[in-house]
Specification:
single chain, two-stranded antiparallel ribbon, globular, 307 residues, 19% strand, alpha/beta, seven-stranded mixed β-sheet
Length: 307
């Protein structure tokens, strides 16, 4: 262990011991229903990685409430309940959504925080029409493709304890915002915010999305592994979601396997790899915890920030 590192490194065997007596309140069927497309995960992974993580988060939720109580006592102020906010960052196709849904399910089964909501920053992308007008369709997912001020305003309202806050809804099928659809966030105990951009620092703003996080997670893996997962997911979607005529990617449904691999590789190289290197990867060390995956999708290393 490097004494000068800001992280403590754990292998999964050591990390699993921090589960203590946290019960596994998740069935195999539930796990299969919440895992992402082409994502490989087992109940053993949940037991060894996610149960210790939920125990840590539970302790941090309790500490956060105690600290807020101290401030309220000092101010002689009865404040509204303020959600504990978790940010989850990482590349496209690295498994952020699966991690977010597993944590949402597990954390909601603790007695002190049964209401756990989840939003993705996809809902705060500019509409397809706006991106086309701005010439940003080739940079979808880059910082400039998001309505960052709208996202920050949402975070301010949630963190202020508002009872009802609307979150825009994004459709992967339409590859666009659904203008007449809103998800209502009603003062949860915990809010999980998942997206490639959540740890980024936008120099044009004085306040950053990550300023509102009580805890942040970065899902990490070698770029070549993520590229492989992205291509595999593209091939699977080509046989499923892309078959829908309403899908933005329906044009790719009849490509041969070689053609589909070539197209997926082009999209990866031209968009996702650039975004990873330029905008996402540089934010990794801003996270409180880094979960490092191997080629088999299993998390083999855990890096916990010391302070």
């Amino acid at each position: 262990m490097n004494p000068f590192s800001i992280y403590i490194e754990f292998n999964r065997t050591k990390w699993a011991t921090f589960r203590d007596k946290t019960p596994l309140l998740l069935s195999e069927d539930e796990l299969q229903s919440i895992k992402g497309t082409n994502e490989v995960i087992s109940l053993q992974e949940v037991e060894e990685i996610y149960l210790p993580l939920t125990r840590l988060i539970n302790l941090k939720v309790q500490a956060s409430r105690q600290l807020q109580g101290v401030t309220n006592s000092f101010l002689d102020y009865k404040a509204k309940k303020v959600p504990f906010i978790i940010g989850i960052a990482g590349s496209v196709a690295v498994g952020k959504s699966t991690t977010a849904r597993i944590l949402q399910t597990l954390l909601s089964r603790w007695d002190i925080h049964t209401k756990v909501d989840l939003v993705t920053t996809d809902g705060f992308l500019y509409s397809k029409d706006t991106l086309e007008k701005k010439g940003l369709m080739g940079k979808k997912g880059f910082p400039e493709s998001y309505d960052t001020q709208k996202l920050i305003d949402f975070m301010v309202r949630v963190k202020s304890g508002e009872d009802k806050v609307e979150s825009p809804v994004y459709s992967h099928l339409a590859y666009d915002i659904l203008p007449n659809n809103m998800e209502l966030i009603c003062n949860p105990d915990i809010l999980i915010v998942e997206g490639v951009n959540v740890l980024q620092v936008n120099k044009s703003h004085h306040v950053f999305v990550s300023d509102f996080f009580d805890f942040s997670i970065y899902i990490d893996a070698d770029e070549e592994n993520i590229k492989k997962w992205y291509i595999e997911r593209f091939l699977l979607l080509q046989k499923t979601a892309f078959q829908n005529r309403k899908s933005y990617f329906h044009r790719y449904n009849n490509l041969s396997k070689d053609e589909a691999i070539k197209k997926a590789t082009e999209i990866w190289v031209d968009i996702n790899a650039k975004n990873l290197k330029e905008n996402i990867l540089p934010t990794k060390r801003r996270a409180n915890i880094i979960l490092r995956k191997d080629l088999d999708h299993n998390i083999k290393k855990i890096y916990l920030k010391k302070f």
